[in-house]
């Protein structure tokens, strides 16, 4: 009785158009009030406990990092890097768009943000070289879904908080499936490109890859900071999210200078001569190498006192000295004797930029661009956290009424095994994903299916990846597929046109879902290799 009442209320409210968060929270409160032995004070206690969840604190920081990266011009630099890498293949611009989505996904953790940031530039570029609008839109709508599969992923954080598994394991588990999904989309594009004789970009050589890498390096290095920091033991996933938010703001405001008070301010003024530019670049590369070395060497050698900060610094300074001598010799004139003068000529450029950054620091914190990013991120955070807190109350109600246990006994009584159970989970999520936002649906379904999966011996991390992939497909299936609406908005196409454009590539993701579901090795290999097998206490 209690089970039927709870689920009828939830889906009844959703059918009437009540927001997901209110539907979950109100149904839970009414069930507790009318049927449960718990007092109503348990509602307040559960809401307070859910809001104090340390893992969930990562979500607003990842959202803020995504907002700065989406606004700060990182996307166009990533696209240049992707095109220089694989653009010379047949259909290369389309495949480069998928690669760009994969790279941006590793920065943002958000699927809609990936579609907007990459799609706005990539679709226009594909149209200019002869791709149809429908083909370009279908690629971006599907590739954008990788934003929630390739770590860091906000949806993975939500799943980890809902069923109390490791966020770090979920991030590791998403790496290999994310690469496989991106590769499958690229293969599908290449096959179509060969049949339609789609254009290939000109091969510009390894020099263009290096230049693209240097431009995108500041943004892409965020991947190293987040994942390297977590698995190097420097900080927790929540702390990694906070670091990512600060780093993203710094890069957008002071390095790329695509927003804020320094917008359009060049690093080197036009009147500076070649010698000054060479001296400045030599010092930039040397400083960048030193900090990158300190970070990467800690991840590789900093455990258990293998190396000290002093030893790593000395090794780094040797590398700095090599760069400060080698680069002026390579790019400058006058030989070894001219190196000190070349480096000295770059100091005024450094001084000017440090003054500009210092003068613009506090104005950047309150600039209109910064304020807009903060407000947009705040709105998204409030919406998502309100859903999560109410969904955790819903999960508490399920547990208090022992509803998952009853469903587990029912399914086992009907002879379900792990194979047929995963079919049922996929069908349930694919249908639900057509009508609900991913985080809300996951928070409803995960507490119900998780105990059953544990009883059937399914790895909880594997189950999480299956659910995330289902959420991906839900974002590109009507009528509520969020990526469809975002793609429609940036292309000006109708929703029906976007659905038709995305359909061939959705079939690729369906095949990928089957592979992920029944080849658990893809999801569990990396986390088990680096962190050992998951221990589940029933």
UniProtKB/TrEMBL annotation:
Q: Which family does it belong to?
A: Belongs to the TRAP transporter large permease family.
Stored Pfam families: DctM
Q: Where in the cell is it found?
A: Cell inner membrane
What is the membrane topology listed in the Swiss-Prot or TrEMBL record?
Multi-pass membrane protein
The protein in question is named TRAP transporter large permease protein
Membrane-spanning segments: 7-34, 54-75, 87-107, 113-131, 143-165, 171-193, 216-234, 240-257, 278-299, 311-330, 381-399, 411-433, 440-458, 464-486, 498-521
**Function per UniProt:** Part of the tripartite ATP-independent periplasmic (TRAP) transport system.
Lineage: superkingdom: Bacteria
Looking at the keywords, is Transport present? Answer: yes
Query: How the protein assembles, per its UniProt entry?
Result: The complex comprises the extracytoplasmic solute receptor protein and the two transmembrane proteins.
Give coiled-coil spans as residue ranges. Answer: none
| TRAP C4-dicarboxylate transport system permease DctM subunit domain residues | 7-259, 282-520
Q: Does the keyword Lipid biosynthesis apply?
A: no
Organism field: Jiella mangrovi
Give the keywords, sorted. Answer: Cell inner membrane, Cell membrane, Membrane, Transmembrane, Transmembrane helix, Transport
């Amino acid at each position: 009785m209690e089970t039927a009442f709870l689920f009828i209320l939830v889906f009844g409210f959703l059918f009437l158009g009540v927001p997901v968060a209110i539907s979950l929270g109100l149904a839970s409160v009414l069930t507790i009030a009318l049927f449960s032995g718990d007092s109503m004070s348990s509602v307040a206690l559960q809401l307070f406990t859910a809001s104090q969840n340390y893992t969930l604190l990562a979500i607003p920081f990842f959202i803020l990092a995504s907002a700065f990266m989406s606004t700060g011009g990182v996307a166009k630099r990533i696209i240049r890097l992707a095109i220089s890498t694989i653009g010379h293949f047949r259909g290369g611009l389309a495949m480069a768009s998928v690669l760009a989505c994969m790279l941006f996904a590793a920065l943002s953790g958000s699927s809609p943000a990936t579609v907007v940031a990459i799609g706005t530039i990539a679709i226009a570029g594909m149209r200019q070289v002869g791709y149809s609008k429908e083909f370009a839109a279908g690629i971006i709508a599907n590739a954008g879904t990788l934003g929630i599969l390739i770590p860091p992923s906000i949806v993975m954080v939500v799943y980890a908080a809902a069923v109390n598994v490791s966020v770090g394991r979920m991030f590791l588990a998403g790496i290999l499936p994310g690469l496989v999904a991106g590769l499958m989309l690229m293969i599908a594009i290449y096959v179509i490109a060969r049949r339609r004789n789609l254009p290939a970009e000109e091969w510009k050589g390894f020099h263009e890859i290096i230049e693209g890498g240097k431009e995108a390096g500041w943004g892409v290095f965020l991947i190293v900071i987040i994942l390297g920091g977590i698995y190097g033991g420097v900080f927790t996933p929540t702390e990694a999210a906070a670091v990512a938010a600060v780093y993203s703001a710094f890069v957008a405001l002071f390095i790329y200078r695509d927003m804020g008070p320094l917008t359009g301010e060049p690093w080197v003024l036009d009147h500076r001569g070649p010698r000054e530019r060479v001296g400045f670049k030599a010092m930039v590369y040397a400083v960048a190498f030193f900090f990158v070395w300190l970070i990467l060497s800690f991840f590789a050698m900093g455990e258990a006192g293998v190396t000290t900060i002093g030893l790593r610094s000395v090794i780094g300074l040797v590398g700095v000295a090599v760069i400060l001598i080698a680069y002026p010799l390579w790019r400058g004139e006058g030989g070894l004797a001219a190196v000190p003068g070349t480096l000295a000529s770059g100091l005024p450029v450094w001084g000017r930029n440090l003054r500009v950054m210092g003068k613009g620091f506090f104005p950047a914190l309150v600039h209109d661009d910064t304020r807009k990013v903060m407000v947009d991120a705040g709105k998204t955070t409030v919406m998502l956290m309100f859903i999560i807190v109410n969904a955790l109350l819903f999960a508490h109600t399920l547990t208090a009424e022992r509803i998952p246990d009853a469903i587990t006994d029912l399914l086992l009584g009907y002879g379900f095994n792990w194979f047929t159970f995963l079919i049922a989970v996929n069908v349930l999520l694919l249908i639900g994903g057509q009508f609900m936002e991913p985080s809300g649906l996951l928070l409803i379904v995960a507490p119900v299916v998780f105990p059953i999966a544990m009883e059937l011996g399914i790895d909880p991390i594997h189950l999480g990846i299956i659910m995330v992939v289902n959420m991906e497909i839900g974002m590109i299936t009507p009528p509520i597929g969020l990526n469809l609406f975002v793609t429609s908005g940036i292309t000006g196409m109708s929703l029906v046109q976007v659905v038709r454009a995305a359909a061939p590539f959705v079939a690729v993701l369906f095949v990928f879902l089957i592979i992920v579901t029944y080849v658990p090795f893809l999801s569990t290999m990396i986390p088990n290799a680096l962190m050992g097998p998951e221990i589940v206490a029933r």
